[in-house]
Amino acid sequence: MAYLVIVLAFTAFGLLLGLTVTLTMLPSRYVKHSPVSKESVSVQILVLGDIGRSPRMQYHALSVARHGGRVDLIGYHESPPHPDLLSNPRVRIFSLAPPPSLLKSKSIPFIISGPLKVLWQIWTLFQVLGYHTPPARWLLVQNPPSIPTLVIALLISILRNTHLMIDWHNYGWTILAGTKGRDHPFVKISKAYECALGQAAPTANITVTHAMKKQLEREPYNVTTPILVLHDRPASIFQPLKSLADRRDFLEKLPETENFASNIIAGETKLVVSSTSWTPDEDFSLLLEALVAYAKEDVVRPIVAVITGRGPQKAFYEDRIQELQKTGRLPNIRILTAWLTMEDYAKLLRCADLGICLHMSSSGVDLPMKVVDMFGSGLPVVAYSGYESFDELVKEGVNGCGFEKASELAAILKRLFSDEGLGELQILRQGAKKESDLRWDEEWDRVLGRIFGVID
């Protein structure tokens, strides 16, 4: 409880300091054009995270720019952004300065480094949103994270005469509850903060599912401003496989698959792909336990599983994988971890036999972008299904299958990779290819084009 008081005190102090500085040096304000032309539409897009690992916000930027609008994309520049962003003259990327390395040091207690990190974020957000970027007609903010993003965005939108739109990917407080528990005081305060800012801040809202829209309209959120549902759709880089020659060329060149390429192409070995952020909301042990159970079965096809992504638990699970392989519990199973460029990741998806998603929704109403990318590549998906919005994306027996236990995942792998299950796998692939016809550009134009003023 003492830590909570310190965090809140530092946050309040940071806000007061930032507000004082801002009021004494007021940033320039947006001046509305009449009539509004597509070229005069300007949007600031903020993600308090790595831009390169925020595909939805990158797609927003590309959509605005594609119709002639100007975009300032703001966030941490840790991994390479989408290549089309870098070459588009209507998109500028403003990097947020990361916290000093001293604040990341384990030698400083978190009770001290945590509040100081929040203060740093408040200051850098004020600087970039208020002074380094020109005023914009719209400020589009990703949530979560909500602290301190939402309150800073609200203040900036007032000071700069900007419309504020929140893109609700999930809820910050439910993610925090996954580690602290729902009864923790900090979680309760975070929930109250998020609900209050959701009611007060936006001109409009976007959600990733209909279930989330309905939830925001009810207690405790009570959001009364317009809520639009914009389902995630794959970008044009994710396309189904065009030829077997393309598949062979890529698998033989990719270091992770070059030694298995001929067996994968012949169908003797199955290629499985999973993308993970290596965080607690994706229980990777489910996949490991399922592969151990699968390997115990008689007469099953070998599997090469390529796991992509970065995250805090990666080293822990890599050690577990090595232990399972050394003790002989994964015969005929190879698990490889990789970090790929966007282009190679898209090619890997279209060359795989099956995609696996371990996303566990903390709120029960969000959806994983990785499944959308898999469908865009014509790849059928086996995904964790224990949340309310699951069937808004994955249709059981049509484009994928759902599971909640490792034993269920193992049974699905055995069935789909058996001789008898090849027909079912082909049906799922056809369903995934049909899903790939639904693209981001068309969905964005339909939902947001007129709202932003880039479509007549």
List the helices and strands and how they pair.
Blueprint: H1 2-24, E1 42-50, H2 55-66, E2 70-76, H3 83-87, E3 91-95, H4 101-104, H5 110-132, E4 138-143, H6 149-159, E5 163-168, H7 172-180, H8 185-200, E6 204-207, H9 210-217, E7 227-229, H10 244-253, H11 261-266, E8 270-275, H12 285-296, E9 303-308, H13 314-326, E10 333-338, H14 342-351, E11 354-357, H15 369-376, E12 381-384, E13 400-403, H16 406-416, H17 422-435, H18 440-452
Parallel strand pairs: 1-2, 1-4, 2-3, 4-5, 5-6, 6-7, 8-9, 8-11, 9-10, 11-12, 12-13
Q: What low-confidence regions span 5 or more consecutive residues with pLDDT below 50? A: none
Rounded mean pLDDT is 89
Number of strands: 13
Task: Give the DSSP E fraction (strand runs of 2 or more residues).
Answer: 15-25%
Residues in helices, as a percent range: 40-55%
Give the end-to-end Cα distance, rounded to a whole number of Å: 53 Å
Q: Biggest sheet: strands, sense, closure?
A: 7 strands, parallel
Can you list the strand order of the major beta sheet?
3-2-1-4-5-6-7
Shape: globular
Radius of gyration: 23 Å
Oligomeric state of this protein: single chain
